[in-house]
Amino acid sequence: MLPKRDHTQLLADLAAEYARYAPQSAALHARAQQVMIDGGSHSLRLIQPFPPRIVRAQGARLTDEDGHSLLDLWQGHYANILGHNPPVVTHALAHAFDSGWGLQTGFTDRLQIETAEIICRQTGAERVRFTTTGALATMNAIMLARAFTGREIVMKVGGGWHGAQPWGLVGVNFASRAEPWRVEGAGLPPALVRQVVVSRYNDPAMLRDHFKAYGDRAACFIVEPFMGAGGFMPAAPEYLRVARQLADQYGVVLIFDEVISGFRFRAGDLGSLYGVKPDLATFAKIIGGGMPVAAVAGRADILKLCGREGGNQVRFPGGTYSAHPAGMFAAKTLLTYLVEHEQEVYPRLARLGAAMRYAVEEAFAAEGILARCLSTPNDAIPGSSFVVPQFPYDDQQPLISPDQVNDPEVCDVALRDRVFQLALLLENVHVVHGGGAVCAAHTDADVAELGEACRRVARRIRQGGSR
What we know:
Blueprint: H1 8-21, H2 23-32, E1 54-58, E2 61-64, E3 69-72, H3 75-78, H4 87-98, H5 110-123, E4 127-131, H6 134-149, E5 153-157, H7 190-193, E6 196-199, H8 204-214, E7 218-223, E8 226-227, E9 233-234, H9 237-250, E10 253-257, H10 271-274, E11 280-283, E12 294-298, H11 300-303, H12 325-340, H13 342-365, E13 372-373, E14 386-387, E15 389-390, H14 402-405, H15 413-425, E16 429-430, E17 436-437, H16 444-463
Parallel strand pairs: 3-16, 5-6, 5-7, 7-10, 10-11
Antiparallel strand pairs: 1-2, 2-3, 4-12, 8-9, 11-12, 13-15, 14-17
Helix pairs in contact: 1-15, 4-12, 5-12, 8-9, 13-16, 15-16
């Protein structure tokens, strides 16, 4: 067992040093706070004490207002699988815009059809409906499931993040062992909150118990086949197989949230690698090619409920920017590239991801600090591009669910979420969630750079703050 650490003084020292290191970003943050809540419009991006303000992004790197060149593993919320502003997409968009095409919002065109055809072909979905964000996709998938089954209860897993939508704001952040999961925000209707049942990731026995107790009243079970913000760990194959069996047994709609995992591990959905087909799946991030594109895909008999054939029972009509022409063009361009280059892109991402995970773990081990990256392959997933270290106190403790990695009695959560992030910024490395993901623009030199940066960070932590 490793000793627990108090990082209060170290965090204060890092914050003071960062303020001196990035004065232009600090000044812009102070200015931003005068006109925006907390100085921005997305909480996760607002790193404390202030985020780097970016002036350029290309490939694997960012340039901030202070002129620092940052190695970036955040990559647009893990959306930029080819890196920032990949020429394969930007050149195509630039040509379209120069030709007087791309901002004619409010019409239909062939691009919607062609992009939907790619998604159906690569995921096995029967129908697709586009929207603009992952949160809207998961919300509408749940609404479709509730309408299709005539039931109210929504089942999910603790730590699963399905966007800032009503059913998604329950059971996201670990609270305590006595009450691990709770409602995440004020303003939600109490009756709606009571409709959400929170199970445990990678725990087939608990899932069976929850289906036995709630299955005949449950509309859906929504789960990430690869857990994102809750811990960056893959689902156990048995767990997803059990979920499919139970959903069939109880007439529950199985929803895979593939907002992060879709087209991340292969040129298609992740569920197919497990041999498990959901009834509905949600996609976003990568499928947009850097533009705000999201989708609900799956069974035609469920999705038709938001269309004329189903009487427009579910109000999923889209929005002003749903299937935006420029977004569809970027989506089709990127998805076509990933399909055509699947055998080049994904093995390379897997190799670089493995190398980066090894570099991070070895860097901390050299300074006597246990770091464990959980985003490793399993029997279903041949490779992973994610690099997110956890810092458990017990090297024998299995880490398979969010309630373990987010329990401060099990893992050093403050080290992962705050110390590591801020200390890496001083090494010109940008991460969120304590880590990130490899993109196609990363190189072996970037692996070495990250390893060296982590070694210096680990040494600073061991020494209590000094560089």
